[in-house]
């Protein structure tokens, strides 16, 4: 029963991967009572999460003072970051390790299936992440797409421990979806951290070297498939112009603007200028930032670095801190994929917004709670033995 509850709540809070549009403020209202219930209890990640929330509140206040944008509007537009509080709801429900992992497995399959369906029927829009046009290349984003990378590492880790082919199938499905997303950084890092995960679980031996060679040869063959070759060509085509050797590269222009012209003082730089209004609630700050977007100047292309310009340096530091802590916590080898996934997220988020992408804080909450549950169980068994 708890698996069904977790799956339903996760789908609800990611708006069924963007198929629905339930108000974020209403959904956060469902989580808030569970935060209050849990504040007095000791948890592994409570302080880190509260620091994130504190940083977000400071950015909202900063936006009010320096950009004259009402705090409620700023809160509504930055609401997706507050979903890290889902962690407290999970602690109240208190599912078992097996129930959480089963829920992650199922949610990953659902996410990948939805992505595949949306990709197949594009340009028809089923999920909100397919609305943006990227030109000749189809690059779809889904709310909560972090399940694809978490599920990928879960599949690799579990296969190494159990040799069950269902986990291989899961990882292959996830890798295909990550490939279709079209992020060069994510694709490269997923391969790097796959090697890291394998070494972490099995160490280095002749079998590892043989499998690595087989994997490389298989990848070379797969890259010859026409649809895959076209996708690679599009990524390589972007590389020719989207690199830091090109002074007209939009990321260079963005960096210069936000570091030299955007902030009114060092206080705003530290706490962030706040999330600008979007949609119907128009403010002068929102209009200004929309003009920048129309010029191609956004605040996500440098990942966590650039998002600190909006939500503040303390908020980002707190996020990176809980990711590092998640990696450093000792867990059995069957679960090392969780910490590696967090480090992968941080690494990928220097040039992408994957860490803070809408819905991914729900995925992170599931992973953080699972790490805590495993850690406490592991320590208890050590004490009893």
Average pLDDT metric:
87
Q: What is the tally of beta strands?
A: 0
Helix content: over 70%
Please work out how many helical segments DSSP would assign: 19
Element string (H = helix, E = strand): HHHHHHHHHHHHHHHHHHH
Regions with little confidence, pLDDT below 50 for 5+ residues: 239-248
How many domains in all?
1
Strand composition percent: under 5%
**Could you say which overall geometry the principal axes of the C-alpha atoms support?**
globular
- Spatial extent as radius of gyration: 21 Å
User: What structural category arises from helix and sheet content?
Assistant: mainly alpha
Distance between the termini: 31 Å
| Biggest sheet character | none
What does this structure look like?
- This protein has about 375 residues and is an all-alpha fold.
- The protein has one domain.
- The chain is about 70% helix and about 0% strand.
- It is built from 19 helices and no strands.
- The chain has helices at about 1-15, 15-20, 25-40, 45-65, 70-75, 85-95, 95-120, 145-160, 165-180, 185-200, 205-220, 225-240, 250-260, 265-270, 285-295, 305-310, 315-330, 335-350, 360-385.
- Helix 4 (about 45-65) crosses helix 5 (about 70-75), helix 7 crosses helix 9 and helix 7 (about 95-120) runs antiparallel to helix 19 (about 360-385).
- The relative contact order is 0.15.
- Residues about 240-250 have low confidence and may be disordered.
């Amino acid at each position: 029963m708890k698996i069904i509850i977790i799956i339903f709540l996760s789908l609800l809070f990611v708006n069924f991967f963007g198929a629905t549009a339930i108000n974020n403020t209403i959904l956060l209202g469902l989580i808030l009572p569970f935060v209050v219930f849990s504040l007095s209890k000791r948890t592994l990640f409570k302080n880190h999460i509260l620091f994130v929330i504190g940083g977000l509140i400071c950015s909202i206040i900063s936006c009010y003072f320096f950009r004259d944008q009402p705090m409620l509007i700023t809160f509504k537009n930055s609401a997706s970051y507050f979903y890290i509080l889902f962690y407290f709801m999970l602690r109240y429900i208190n599912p078992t390790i097996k129930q959480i992992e089963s829920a992650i497995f199922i949610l990953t399959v659902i996410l990948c299936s939805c992505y595949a369906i949306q990709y197949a029927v594009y340009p028809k829009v089923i999920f909100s992440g397919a609305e943006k046009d990227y030109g000749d290349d189809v690059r779809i984003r889904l709310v909560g797409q972090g399940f694809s990378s978490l599920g990928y590492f879960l599949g690799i880790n579990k296969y190494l421990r159990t040799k069950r082919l269902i986990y291989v199938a899961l990882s292959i499905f996830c890798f295909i979806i990550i490939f279709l997303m079209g992020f060069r950084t994510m694709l490269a890092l997923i391969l790097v951290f796959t090697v890291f995960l394998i070494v972490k679980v099995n160490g280095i031996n002749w079998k590892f070297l043989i499998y690595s060679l087989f994997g490389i040869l298989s990848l070379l063959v797969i890259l010859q498939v026409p649809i895959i070759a076209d996708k690679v060509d599009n990524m390589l085509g972007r590389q020719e112009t989207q690199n830091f050797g090109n002074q007209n590269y939009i990321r260079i222009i963005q960096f210069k603007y936000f570091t030299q012209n955007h902030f009114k003082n060092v206080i705003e730089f530290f706490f962030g200028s706040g999330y600008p209004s979007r949609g119907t609630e128009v403010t002068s700050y929102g209009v200004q930032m929309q003009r920048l977007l129309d010029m191609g100047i956004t605040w996500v292309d440098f990942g966590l670095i650039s998002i600190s310009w909006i939500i503040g340096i303390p908020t980002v530091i707190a996020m990176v801190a809980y990711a590092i802590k998640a990696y450093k916590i000792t867990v059995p080898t069957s679960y090392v994929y969780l910490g590696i996934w967090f480090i992968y997220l941080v690494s990928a988020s220097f040039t992408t917004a994957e860490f803070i992408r809408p819905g991914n804080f729900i995925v992170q909450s599931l992973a953080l709670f699972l790490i805590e549950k495993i850690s406490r169980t592991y320590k208890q068994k050590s004490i009893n033995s």
